[in-house]
Specification:
Arc Repressor Mutant, subunit A, 13 strands, single chain, 7-stranded mixed beta sheet, 42% helix, rod-shaped, two-stranded antiparallel sheet, 3 domains, 9 helices, 294 residues
């Protein structure tokens, strides 16, 4: 008989004020109930009950012990409920990812996952800021860019190229730059999530980083793309995000012959040994979705 079972017996004896009724309700010999109480008293060196032939009553110390025991047994029930939810594939998944990936890719495809796990809740932290898996208590993160968190598990997805783009309206006004030297007569849309204002923007390529003037500073991806579409300046976004705009003629790719900057796309996880099956299946499903679409 483990300690939790003995605590449950103790609580029942206290509620019934009777060893005999507790034994009857539990379907145990009275001697087992007596042993459970005596072993607790011996372990904690405290007298829990006043016993007479007619009545059982808690001592003062027993009353304090009862309050703690009830709380502990209630917490155990909550833990068992969690185990039941895991087995029944009911729970929640919290994921952090760039806002554009969340709105353009994950959300439109979530119904396919819900068909398999209708009781699982997905909580999306769609932010352009750097998502911290530990501090924000996220189950997983999709991150575009280099990973320096050595304590996280990295599940590589792909490499994505960063395209340089401008709208037809912008190119009609300023012309298409043919070399980096011409960029000082052009404008970029500056993008920075940390509110770090600077005098010049920067275009990044695989082997070059070029300073370029800007007229507008943006702090979220959606506004950044709309500024590019509006002809305010050149922008740089991942290939998977750029392709639809290029195909529709809304943006034109520049510097096609210059090797583009490439960034890794990874799913990051904590090193957690016991993962619910619905969560592991979600990661496998998301992995497959990202590889197909990116």
């Amino acid at each position: 008989m483990d300690k939790i079972e003995r605590l449950k017996i103790f609580c029942l004896v206290a509620d019934k004020q009777s060893f005999a009724q507790a034994a009857l309700q539990l379907g145990l010999p009275r001697s087992n109930v007596t042993y459970a109480i005596q072993s607790l008293e011996k372990e904690y060196e405290v007298r829990l009950f006043y016993r007479t032939t007619r009545k059982v009553a808690l001592t003062h110390e027993g009353s304090l012990f009862y309050e703690e025991a009830v709380r502990l047994v209630a917490q155990l029930k909550e833990l068992n409920r969690f185990k039941t939810h895991v087995r029944s594939q009911e729970g929640k998944i919290s994921i952090g990812m760039p806002k554009r990936l969340a709105t353009q890719l994950l959300i439109p495809n979530l119904l396919a996952f819900y068909q398999r796990y209708p009781k699982v809740k997905v909580l999306i932290n769609g932010s352009d800021d750097f998502s911290n898996l530990i501090e924000q208590q996220l189950d997983c993160v999709v991150r575009v860019g280099q990973v320096q968190d050595e304590y996280l598990l990295i599940r590589p997805i792909t490499q994505t190229k960063i395209w340089t783009l401008a709208s037809p309206q912008y190119l009609a006004e300023f012309g298409e730059p043919k070399s980096f030297d011409e960029l000082q007569q052009h404008f970029a849309v500056d993008y920075h999530v940390a509110k770090n204002y600077r005098e010049m923007s920067e275009l990044a390529f695989r082997d070059h980083r070029i300073d370029i003037p800007y007229r507008l500073l943006i702090e979220n991806t959606e506004a950044y793309i709309h500024a590019g579409l509006a002809g305010i300046g050149m922008i740089q976004i991942p290939e998977f995000d750029a392709v639809p705009y290029v195909q529709q003629g809304k943006l034109q790719r520049l510097f096609v012959d210059i090797p583009s900057l490439e960034l890794p796309v990874n799913i990051l996880l904590t090193d957690r040994q016991y993962r619910p099956k619905y969560f592991q299946d979600f990661i496998d499903w998301l992995d497959d979705l990202l590889k197909k679409r990116l």
